[in-house]
Amino acid sequence: MKPTNSPKTYRVKSFGCQMNVYDGERMAEMLGERGIVPAPEGEDADLVVLNTCHIREKAAEKVYSDIGRLTKGKTQDKAPMIAVAGCVAQAEGEEIMARAPAVSMVVGPQAYHRLPEMLDKAVQGERATDTDMPAIAKFAALPERKRTNPASFLTVQEGCDKFCTYCVVPYTRGAEISRPYGDLVTEARKLVDAGAKEITLLGQNVSAWSGEDDKGHAVGLAGLIRDLAKVDGLARIRYTTSHPADMDDDLIAAHGEIDKLMPFLHLPVQAGSDRVLKAMNRSHTADSYLRLLERFRAARPDLALSGDFIVGFPGETDAEFEETLNLVDAVGYAQAFSFKYSPRPGTPAASMEGQVAKEVMDERLQRLQAALNRDQWAFNRATEGRTCEVLVERKGKHPGQWLGKTPWLQSAWFEGDVGIGDLVQVELVEAGPNSLAGRLREHVAA
After folding, report:
1. Which end of the chain is more exposed for a tag (fewer CB within 10 A), N or C?
2. Is there a domain that residue 2 lies in?
3. Residues near 50 by Cβ (< 8 Å), separated by ≥ 6?
4. What are 396-436's pLDDT values in tens digits?
């Protein structure tokens, strides 16, 4: 079912984390360099890139379902060329090629800079797999950023050395590596030139980033943020995702000293039980995590907090789950992500005793999400009446309506004569559980 002619249109479908979104954007840019254009909305693409995530339950099976939907009822000359990229591609590799003859290319997250070469082979009818993990080589091979969204991503670090017992990232993304300081400053400037007003620095463990500045001085993430804050035209800086073990004094201080660093921190905890945290190979305790948050809030009192949670980790008891609920109550998260534990092949937790029954996990997740949703809505209500800066990111559903993000990463909608990329003053007038209605006050900058 492989087409033998060169594709003229493409669609990149990215799943999972923001790093996958970044990778998907970069793959799209490479295809654009080859003269391939995005398929119009509602029309089939000649080339479909499934940029996969291995975090979700049954991630691999969902990839095969997507492949089936793309090829069902299609004749050979109508079926799209299919590339599978991302973490499932890295983990499954040749298995995808064996199970899915419709797939022309399988490329891992550290090798997608070779996608154009693989495409040339695929056009000639040669199927190709590349799951090599060269250290950061892909970034030098990617095209320059020519246009971007007002809120853009910049990958600064990849991989993880923490080896949490439930996680596949060290196996699919490799060891921790940091992109060079100079490359990041250059790319940030190009993003701003291309229209970015806000940049989110990305990494599997972004707080582990380190490098040398242009004077040869060793710097950590805080030093990079301080220098990026000097870039003319860049109004906002965020970063994600962090590990509690790598949050140093300088980064805490930066939240109180750098106006462009937004008052938002995503810091996964995963559980509130110290025994469960130890079984997960998390290096913090519930108490050390809470004390760390206190230090961040002391530096930036209006800080909005976000986290990640896993319920039903092997051996988790009812009492240990209650400890997670107690931690949630103590923190008061503005946002959070929560999941049922699902075993990942090859990870230590997959073979642990005490696997929790599905119905128990379902009940715990419902209770946890009810508490998290309660606190998110409470945080949103606490911002009612504030006037704050909103970055306009896209049009709303109705004429004259616009959507953007507050400094605390809340979605806010309002009406007015503005444009995408504008920074405007908006009074937050009515809070919902997931967004806020606002009233336009004035422009800050075009």
Report:
1. C
2. no
3. 13, 15, 63, 66, 67, 82, 83, 84, 85, 86
4. 988 899 999 999 999 999 999 999 999 999 999 999 999 99
Say whether both 171 and 84 belong to one domain. Answer: no
Tell me the C-alpha distance between 277 and 332, whole Å: 20
- Same-domain pairing of 198 and 94: no
CATH of residue 438:
2.40.50.140
Specify if 4 maps to a domain: no
Same domain, 185 and 277: yes
How far is residue 388's CA from residue 441's CA, in Å, rounded to a whole number? 9
Domain termination site, one of 332, 353, 382: 382
CA distances from 224 to 136, 140, 287, 347, 384 (A): 18, 20, 29, 33, 33
Q: Which two tokens stand for residue 436?
A: 């806020």
The helix-helix angle for 318-331 and 286-299 (nearest 10°) equals: 10
Helix/strand/coil for 208: helix
103 and 223 part of one domain? no
Q: Quote the pTM value.
A: 0.82
CB 215 within 8 A of CB 174: no
Burial 312-347 (b: 16+ CB within 10 A, else e): bbbbbeeebbebbbebbeebebbbbebbbbbebeeb
Last residue of a domain, one of 105, 130, 155: 130
Q: Which structural domain, as residue segments, surrounds residue 21? A: 9-130
Closest CA to 156 of 226, 109, 204, 213: 204
Phi, psi of 249 (to 5 degrees): -60, -40
- Is residue 412 one of the residues assigned to a domain? yes
pLDDT tens per residue, range 125-147: 889 888 776 666 667 767 777 77
Rounded alpha-carbon distances, angstroms, from residue 345 to 152, 158, 303, 338:
33, 21, 37, 21
User: What are the DSSP calls for 299-343, one per residue?
Assistant: H-TT-EEEEEEEES-TT--HHHHHHHHHHHHHH--SEEEEEE---
Distance CA 202, CA 22 (A): 9
Mean pLDDT by 10 residues, the chain (446 residues): 70 84 88 91 91 72 85 75 88 85 88 87 87 69 77 92 91 87 95 96 95 95 98 97 96 98 98 98 98 98 98 98 98 96 90 96 98 97 97 92 97 95 97 95 61
